[in-house]
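Collaborator request, handled under Task 6.
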Amino acid sequence: MARSSARAATGGPRNGVQLTITGFVEDLARKAEVHDPLRPATRLFLVVLALIGVGFLIQVSHAATTQTEARFLEEVRSQTLFRLAAVVVLLVSFRLGPAGVRRFLPHLVVLVCFALVAVFLEPFRSPRNGAFRWLDLDAAGIPLVFQPSEVARIVLVLWLADRCVKLGHLVHELRRGVVPMLLLALLFFFLILVETDLGGSMLLLLCALSTMWVGGARLLPVSAALATIGGGAFIAASAFVPYVRDRIGMWMGEVQNEQVTQTLDALSSGGAFGAGLTHGGFRNDGVPYLQSDYVFALVGEELGLLGMWLVLVLLVLFLWYSVRLVLSLRDRFEALASFGLLVSVGTQAMLHVQVVSGLAPPKGMTLPFLSDGGTSLIVSALAVGLALGAARKTHQDIYPCNPSNVTV
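Structure tokens returned to the collaborator:
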């Protein structure tokens, strides 16, 4: 009787009728939770492998008609190495888990701050199309170019999860709880914003505030920060940054852009089954970034509606198994860290699909595991691998292997 009353009070199902959205979410959470998180973790790992495989096919197909034979072979080799590296990162971070990097978080935060500043400094900066998003370590003897903003999002989520757990009940306080965490999030946000990368900075802020909220930070200050800072930055960029203003105009239909128009045409040109791999023609008509920022359009052109549904189903499965994994973790830090890590990957994927399909303003944002781009691929693999590592640790806690209990 008490359980029935409590369920009715929280909006749970009664007589087959769902009373509130809160009750629906709670009921969904109960269905998603499993005893052993290694089960959804295994399925999540298989979904990521499938996305990596689809991405490899799409990238090879794109290179087949846009590169010379020598460059094509080099691209195949590069894609193979990067995707094998992503699998290796998945497995290594699976062994580590969030707990494996927890003690290094203060050092990682400092390193990321230096990296976000170094993108503007010689000899490390590598500007492209007027943006300073890439850090070139060749001057330090390391043949590596990457985007620190991608790494910053992962490090910030881990640090916020650690901070929320260490604060305990103090996380609810504004001065000692919300403000210090918000200050670091805003520092990263503004450093990425001035690169210029409005989309990347907004994604980082969204992931950071989501992690803080789930970690127990007061909802009102967090929501106010998101509305004030994020909305203010968006309005200011729309007013004073020409490329942002133009892209919003493209989305509203006030400004015509050939790339956006041709991208939508490519997305819808494949019909039910697509033109077939290597048979897409829009990339040869001069539509740029089909292999990276608009790769979902390439999927629609070459694999058609069937291919788009395949990718979308894989992304939905990614989100579902992510929810099941997080809800089944027992350690608070690892659950909160896994939530933020998986949200960062899932949100980026959803934004990419929305941009390509015209549901959001044009923004250069890769589709995790499918797009060309080493930093995005490796960092996405790192985020998912750490979450899988949290599931492994919980599994070991549930089923400890005690050699002393083994009899011969």
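The cover message to the collaborator said: "Residues 36-387 form one domain. The chain has one domain: 36-387. Please let us know whether this matches your experimental observations."
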